[in-house]
Automatic annotation (TrEMBL):
The keyword NADP is assigned to this record: no
Keywords recorded for this protein, A-Z: Transcription, Transcription regulation
Name of the protein described by the UniProt record: Helix-turn-helix domain-containing protein
Record-linked Pfam families: DJ-1_PfpI (PF01965), HTH_18 (PF12833)
Length: 318
């Protein structure tokens, strides 16, 4: 059997305890597939941004054994434009080709180390201006939850750390396994990385008429065409009001959300059934198999056959 994929979390002084625990919670739900180690730059205790410190099990030598290195965020009062020497020495041990992930302010460390030069990235919107002024060579997008640039992934604050970790599970093992982990963690199974960070979206009053019931109805009827007029009619709103409220609540347009859900459902069927592509397209609301192929390729860059082969093996694609 292949050894578990090793995720090494580098905790820096001022680390946020919530985000520090995300990798162990998400990847730790699959102990047969992942192994999570936590280290510091010197092997000693790490001060958090709360009123306690944490003791980690490993020193920086653990980074040389990592398949994925993850940098959780730390308090903004500790941000610096230059890479602290100890942190630079620790990162120098990371093997070439290792997947590297940051959450929130962890992106500052990657940028200071030159790992984001010329690459797309994100961080928490509240520190985006500082990040952009310090690292203009990075293609910063502060309006998304996470950015997957292959071997380097960056994410925004707090809950988006859960999103990017679930995204990695989905990328490594498919939607069905990621759904299992999400259920174990009692979190939503999927939020698109391009979804907005909700920078200025107020929480609506409890009594406010929202679009959640219509979204649930749409998910139950994905096999139908589902026009914007039909969605707004189900929500008993005008087209303009529905589109505005939907974007406020979900962070994207109804049309884009529908495509995301159709692709997500199609991926699940490709992983768990032997249905032909045309049949799957009909079940998820795409007019033709060609339409499904185009949307799947736009979303994840592969064809249905290649996706099915990846997650079900060659026998299932014959």
């Amino acid at each position: 059997m292949r050894p578990p994929h090793r995720v090494v979390v580098l905790a820096l002084d001022g680390v946020y305890p919530f985000e520090l625990g995300i990798p162990s919670r998400v990847f730790g739900a699959l102990q047969d597939r992942y192994e999570v180690l936590t280290c510091s730059v010197d092997g000693g205790p790490v001060a958090t941004n709360a009123d306690f410190s944490v003791t980690v099990g490993h020193g920086p030598e653990a980074l040389a054994t990592a398949d994925t290195v993850l940098l959780p965020p730390f308090d903004i009062s500790r941000l610096s434009r230059e890479l602290p020497p100890q942190v630079g020495e620790a990162l120098a041990a990371v093997r070439p080709g290792t997947r590297i992930v940051s959450i929130c302010t962890g992106a500052f460390v990657l940028a200071a180390a030159g790992l984001l030069d010329g690459r797309p990235a994100t961080t928490h919107w509240a520190v985006a201006d500082v990040f952009r002024s310090w690292y203009p060579e990075v293609a910063l997008d502060p309006d998304v939850l996470f950015v997957d640039d292959g071997d380097v992934l960056t994410s925004a604050g707090a809950a988006s750390g859960v999103d990017v970790c679930l995204h990695l599970v989905r990328r490594d093992h498919g939607a069905a396994v990621a759904n299992h982990v999400a259920r174990a963690c009692v979190v939503p199974p999927w939020r698109d990385g391009g979804q907005a960070q909700y920078i200025e979206h107020p929480v609506p009053p409890v009594a406010a008429h929202d679009t959640s019931a219509t979204r649930q109805w749409a998910l139950e009827n994905l096999h139908e065409p589902l026009t914007l007029t039909e969605l707004a009619g189900h929500a008993r709103m005008s087209l303009r009001t529905f589109a505005r409220r939907f974007n406020e609540e979900v962070g994207t347009s109804p049309g884009r959300w529908l495509i995301q859900q159709r692709v997500y459902r199609a991926r699940h069927l490709l992983e768990t059934t032997d249905l032909p592509v045309d049949d799957i397209a009909g079940q998820v609301g795409f007019a033709t198999g060609t339409s499904l192929r185009e949307h799947l390729h736009a979303a994840i860059g592969v064809s249905p056959l290649a996706y099915r082969r990846t997650f079900r093996g060659t026998a299932a694609t014959r």
